[in-house]
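TICKET: design request
STATUS: open
ATTACHED STRUCTURE:
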């Protein structure tokens, strides 16, 4: 462990080998920090916060401070951050709310400067949240999603895997997996073909998704009837099955087409 002389690290905190703590950073009693994680200057890590190995946390990040929720009354809540995350300058991550509530961040994510992850969010693996990306409470981000700069995401919204949301968008409904979305409110423009190719999704699966998107966003059918038609006419690739499952489980409804 390597701590700058000006850093304040609680004797109760648990820091693994090769953890580095920069100038004027404060590590609270209940922090648990994994091996080879680097914490920059003027960071604050407090509350019941667990951080995995190999993370890089930059200047001014505040992780684990109490949720910005008027219902919060000091219950025991948690923030769990996985391995190999990059958390840039002045990001703020809050724990869950209500007793035992958790905010969970997976592995290999990039959070650019001033990103905010509110209470009870789940961010999966290999996601990118660009500068000033803002997640309200109970938002779920699936694997490999990209959230553009200055995007604001409403409470309880789900963002599907391999989707990309354009900068400055207002997201009030669920973003389908594999989609490109943009706008105020965010609307679906089509498949995220670049993301699909970069992740080696095979051509048959991409063709199935393309047909499904045409039915969902170009047929004029209701979402319920469009999903039924997709199940009748399309294939059974894992990607298509995930798209159908995501839509069926949507509670806020999925974002509509840009053509509407």
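STATUS: resolved
RESOLUTION: sequence designed for all positions
ATTACHED SEQUENCE:
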């Amino acid at each position: 462990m390597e701590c700058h002389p000006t850093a304040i690290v609680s004797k109760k905190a648990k820091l693994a080998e090769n953890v580095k703590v920069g100038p004027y950073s404060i590590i609270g009693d209940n922090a648990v920090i994994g091996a080879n994680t680097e914490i920059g200057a003027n960071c604050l890590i407090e509350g019941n916060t667990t951080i995995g190995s190999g993370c890089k946390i930059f200047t001014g990040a505040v992780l684990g401070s109490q949720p910005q929720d008027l219902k919060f009354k000091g219950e025991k809540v948690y923030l769990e951050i996985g391995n190999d995350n990059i958390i840039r300058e002045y990001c703020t991550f809050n724990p869950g709310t209500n007793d035992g509530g958790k905010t969970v961040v997976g592995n290999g994510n990039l959070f650019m400067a001033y990103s905010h992850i509110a209470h009870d969010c789940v961010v999966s693996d290999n996601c990118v949240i660009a500068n000033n990306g803002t997640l309200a409470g109970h938002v779920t981000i699936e694997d490999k999603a990209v959230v553009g700069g200055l995007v604001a995401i409403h409470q309880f919204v789900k963002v599907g895997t391999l989707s990309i949301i354009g900068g400055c968008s207002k997201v009030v409904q669920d973003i389908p997996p594999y989609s490109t979305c943009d706008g105020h409110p965010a609307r679906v423009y089509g498949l995220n073909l670049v993301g699909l190719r970069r992740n080696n999704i095979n051509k048959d699966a991409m063709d199935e998704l393309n047909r499904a998107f045409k039915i969902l966003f170009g047929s004029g059918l209701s979402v319920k009837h469009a999903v039924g038609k997709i199940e009748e006419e399309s294939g059974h690739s894992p990607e298509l099955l995930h798209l159908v499952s995501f839509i069926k489980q949507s509670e806020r409804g999925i974002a509509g087409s840009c053509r509407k």
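CLOSING REMARK: The chain has four helices and 28 strands. The chain has a mean pLDDT of 97.
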